[in-house]
Fold these 2 entries.
Entry 1:
Amino acid sequence: MTQTLRTPFDCAQGDKSVERIIADFPILARPTSRGKRLVYLDSAATSQKPRAVIQALVDYYEQYNANIHRGVYEIAQRATDEYEHARVKVARFIGANTSEVVWVRNTTEAINLVAYSWGDHNITAGDAILLTELEHHSDLVPWQLLAQRTGAQLRFIPVDARGIHVLDDLDRLLDGCKLLAISHVSNTLGTIAPLETLIPRAHAAGAVVLVDGAQGAPHLPLDVKALDADFYAFSGHKMLGPTGIGCLYGKRELLAAMPPFLSGGDMIRKVEYTRTTFNDPPRRFEAGTSNIADAIAFGVAADYLTALGMPWVREHERALTGYALERLAQFEPRGLAIYGPRDPARSSGVISFNFGDIHPHDLASILDTEGICIRAGHHCTMPLMEKSGWGATARASFYIYNTEADVDVLCEGLEKAARVFHI
Amino acid sequence: MDDFYRDYILDHYRSPRNFGTLEQPDVAAEDVNPLCGDQIRVELKLDDGKISDVRFSGKGCAISQASTSMLLETVKGMKLTDVAQLPKDAVLENVGIGISPTRMKCAMLGLRVLKSAAIGKLADWPDEE
């Protein structure tokens, strides 16, 4: 049964028809309680899981459930091998060296790890930390707390009315800046950050760059070395993997100089009663028993995306976003407002909108009756909502299993909402 | 859920009753629904321990705004001690059937804020009592 893990693609290599992909996702074949087809447009919150990922979880628990890095018996060795092999797969997926990939629970934990371990030892009073106005709370609150602990100052790269980064004042913002922390893709508006411009300029100003890749790694071709990011944080569950497993990429020399974040078992080299020598990265940052099955299944998710090819993923989503923007624009004369970039080349599979005076939560409830799953609210970007005066928005987000037919169902759902609310 | 959005609900959403602020409220409270950001503020004018006037302000979905508007229509003349005891049915009787569990907090926000004003501290969620 090892073959299940070594050749995990339900989706045959080269066959990129979306119908074949959809067939790999058991949940998409289950009708809702109202008998509707599930139209899942909330992959920015979490993606659905292909059968191969689910099977990897089952295989671990049914065939070789054992703790890692300890046992000398056969199933413990296999668990360790699969767990470390998953690290190799995820490292390859982002273009990193294996020793630069730290397992964490999710993007939030990865950013907190950097904020405490790197931040507390490298940021001092008077330093500036540069963020953008688009950041998710997970790439904002840890830096607020770091600033409170150290006396550092927070600055923000502004965005225009379409959510596009405005770089006119970048030199001044980078002056005295020790850290640029920026989301690769905005979870609220889909804006793709101009990292190719920003990272070299941040480095030239002496800043370290952390990229919040929660919405980047699942959707865009990624090579952290070519990008020259110092840290890149992302979650497994937004890219076909299970919840509870994520990854922090850090450049080797940065990780090597960082003290532990959490401490305890598995992250040590030698422990005496009063002192401890710590393990090398990445295991220095992996205290306690990890989410073993989830890490292994995350490796299978990376295999699945690798087999599809991330350029294909990007092109599929770009085309679908373009189609959705065209269809939604037909509702604009009736009061639908689209936020964020209108050019799908500048955004990544996320569309935020409001429809007349229908509150997005009411809209989401009405769409739910038709089997359509969208997100409504502030999307964990309350400052952006406040600045923009939107209050809340509805958000549709796409992934590899979405089709133009899903967009058409969304538009039929909007017609229903218009009837219910008499607009 | 779509059955919920009947015309009188939409009427209270678009034309909320007792909407605004009082010049000199005797007690007031406000809260947000952290799940969706809905905000409600309730201000009360008292006369001998009874509600003589009421206003609410805030923003949010049709469920939270209409539920609050309809609830507050029923509380003038009510003793504060009775307000503190209002059950969740005080809202559900007005808005009727069709609220899904995920939206129950939206319906209960106005009642929670009203009861908070009555007892002078943040009240429990009525659906969790």
Entry 2:
Amino acid sequence: MKTPVTSRWPRFALRRAGRLLVSLWVLVTASFLMIHLVPGDPVRAALGPTAPADLVLAHKEELGLLDPLWQQYAAFLGRLFSGELGASISTRLPVGETIAQRLPATAELAVAAFLLSVAVAVPVGVVMAVITRRGRGRRAELAFTGTNVVIGAIPDFLLGVGLVYLLAVQTHVFPVAGREGPSSYVLPVLALAIGPAAVLSRIVRVEMLAVMEADYIRTARAKRLTNLRVYAVHALPNAVTATLTIGGLLLSSLVAGTVLVENVFAWPGLGSSIVTSIVAKDYPLVQGTVLVYGVGVLLINTLVDVVLALLDPRSAIGES
Amino acid sequence: MSVLSFHEVSVRYGAHTVLNGVSLEVPAGRTVGLVGESGCGKSTLARAAVGLAPVTGGHILLDGRPVPNRGRRPVQMVFQDPYSSLDPRMTVGESIAEALPERLPKKARQAEIARLLALVHLDAARAGDLPGRLSGGQRQRVALARALAARPEVILADEITSALDVSVQGAVLNLIRDMRRDLGLSMLFISHDLAVVRYVADHVAVLHDGEIVEQGPTARVLGDPRHDYTRHLLAAALPLKEQT
Amino acid sequence: MRPVGVAGLGLLGAVVFVAAFGPVLWGDQATVVDTGNLLAGPSAQHWIGTDNLGRDLFARVLVAARLSILLALAATAISLVLGIVLGAAPVLVGRRTGRFITSAVNVLVAFPGLLLVLFFAVVFGVGARGAALAVGLAGAPAFARLCHTLVAAVSERDYIAAARIAGVSRIRILLRHVLPNIAEPLVVNATMAAGGVLLTFAGLSFLGLGVQAPDYDWGKLMQDGLNGIYVHPLAALGPGIAVVLAGLAFNLTGEAFAAAPGRVRPLGPARGPSVRTAPVPGAVLSVDDLRVTMPGPVHAVRGVTFTVGEGEAVGLVGESGSGKSVTALAVAGLLEPPVRVEANHLVVAGEEDHRRLGTSLAVVFQDPMTSFNPAHRVGPQLAEVSRFHQGMSRRTAFARAVDRLRAVRIREPERRARQYPFEFSGGMRQRAMIGMGLMGNPRLIVADEPTTALDVTVQRQVLELLAEVRRETGAALLLISHDVSVVTDVCDRVLVMYAGRVVEELPAGDLRARARHPYTRALVAAVPDLETDLDRPLAVIPGLPVDPMSAPAGCAFAPRCPLADDHCRAVAPPLLAGVACHKTAEVRV
């Protein structure tokens, strides 16, 4: 309490940056080791048992797999710093190029679904909390939790399949697959957003319920303010912290969730390419894609932490 | 009967000093009261003596030797919050039995538990109860019985009555006085309440901002305080109307 | 058990049954190749049609249950065991190693599960075993985090410290104290996680990374069905429905266990007041036969009648559970349904409707650390009162707030008003809270244990401030406290509450020496002060406070009272001439 809040900022920044660096290092090292952890001979596995031995050897040479491990690691790090991700085994195209081509489609999907789920979940969660506070509105609560649990049990790709069947196959309202024009975004975004929206609305409600029991809400009511003011001005800001934390986790899981939905809708993003490259054992491409996904997730987490610190200087910066 | 002594004990967490060179002796068979306001380091001193807080300077000695920090400890502690000090999933008897220094056959163990419960004025039938069925005062008495089960030389009582209702507090304080008289235990009795400390302690030490500002026989310290802070505390404990 | 729980357990039972006996019962049917019925639609013979070899899809869905469930359980078990080991490690290993493990888990937890699954799927290769390992390992960080949080919460409890001091070994502490106390939330979470894992598996097989032909689970069936979704939607949706039902079974069961305790029956509707009575004229607060019931039902206040005159200071003393704080909250109009408040009348400053009180009632709460909104600065929280009730502009209201902070002797009020509550000490917050009450012109201040959470020296300042405020504003005070000395210091008149009733009402000066109720006398005698005789044991009140769930018929204090007889136990004494006791004649004053 004695040290002013402002002087804690550099320490917070230092600590947060440190964590980001460590996480990045873990990510990079893990993706480097991935290819070495594969049992057996990865290149042989990728090229198939019929590939001639000298071709396998040539590929190994090219991937640097014949050098000592530390040398490979150093070379890998060196290439990463110069933005070089290697070339795909199957297409021979540079991995960086493939990813750059496909990343925007995935990012659009994830961001749109995130915005949609937040826009739906926060109002729904707040209203449900107000309706069901202190054990009121039993039926509303049952309906809400019931819907929530059911939605939570439906995987997003199945939602995708269901949506395709209902709105594309049966009624032809939206296209079945592909990424052409705004209407092609509707179904994938919906499929991706509904589950997280349910989770988030539930968190918002629980947080609001907890906040509404707090002493300072009693203080606000002792001032005899209107209910709307008590909930909107006094309760909501205090429920935002947890909501944002969960929101950040959701956004990163949305990034990963695109993998499945992209496969349902034949969306030309990273998700469909990572699956085909895993099946085809195209390790350089898998490695690059995992790296890009991971970096995206880490950046989102860092961003959320910074926003949290700005909103609530006490808890975020004071944390050890 | 043993002497617990603190020699220039300091406890620091990072840059934050909680205790700064505290020296204090709990003589054999005596009760020493430790008073001070919240955050002054009272609890930390007790926790340091049983190895729950890291000592960064000085020594804590029991009869001239370091207090053992492994196995059965001859210094036992009773905590403030009666709702956190007993495992909700263990019966009263199990909690007490866990602190017994040696493994006894079932019969002897039950007899020992009954004896300890009787010491704290609880019915032996309570041994089978879970803590959820006990009141706050009863829980504190079980906590005392558990501390006694370890056959301690010294007991540290950390604000053991402050979470209790007044009608229950008296019974626990009487018990503390009985225990000193009958068992001859040495005790460090920590409290923020001067009247309570006056009632149970032979000596009083006043802790302020991690340092002991005054200590001596209870009657002297409370009757003729020499440090400003002690006077300040005493003034706050007197009724408002008698002051002006 | 609520209907949701019953539904969940029933569903889970059905799923387990199908998983256990499905391959036995329908195994043959699922492998019969019917070349006349390739990729057929639903029919009486094949409920959801057949696949490209003419095998009955419904039977295949039922048979696939075993593999799907087993894989999900195996992966959950891997996550759970690894999670517990990693999460509980800090208890077992030293502080430094523990911290390293914790931060490693924190780094891993930041990556979404599916990404980890894909990573491990690459390492372990495509296939059922690889997928189970991948999903299991990927789920471990989340479990480790959960387990760590739970363990940390339990480790802070004093009984762990007591066990350590008693010489109990670390492993034994983990097994005897920590694990049993975190088992319940862990099991609940594991159940729900199993539901999630089931979905992840379906996803993996659907992507072609999980179960490989000729084996099949629900995800694989969905993958096979998706190609024909135009002509034959049920082939994809059927296994999908199976996944959803099984996921629901796990989730609902988990939900039911998580929410099992703490449900109380709601109260019936409030009976209208039997009698309407008029408030006592000239009183700033007049309460007649106040009864407060909480769900349970807990009869917290059982008929309390009293008044507070203009400018008078009245104290309300009692132990925890006596109903004193609930009375204060009822007076302040801060109890909401499902708590039921009834009274023949409850009139504050001439108003029966609390919403129309404006600023004539001020409230000070017990815990100054939690009574300010942490998200807003202190000044605007005070100013809000004047902006809302007195229509002041933001600027004038803020100026008023600064002025009021100065009035409650907060130094540098302009700077302090712009600070957040966490930058205030406890005593300062309590003074600011009193300042908040002074934004208007209070005629009554209700103070609920305003000094209990404060240090003795700070208590004194707050009590003095309350007295000063009363002198300057002429406001009346209703002071609630468990501390007899605080009440005698500040108040003119004292009400003593026991088990939801007022047992005695007397001038504050008479409390120590001239109380007539046995409870009041025992309460005063039980508290040592600086003059207590050191040679005699303290007076104690035998027995336990009443259980508010079971309101006694007679005098509530009778079981603990040395004077009580059968009449006391049968008939509740009314409050007559300031005391509610049948035995006042026997109490020597």
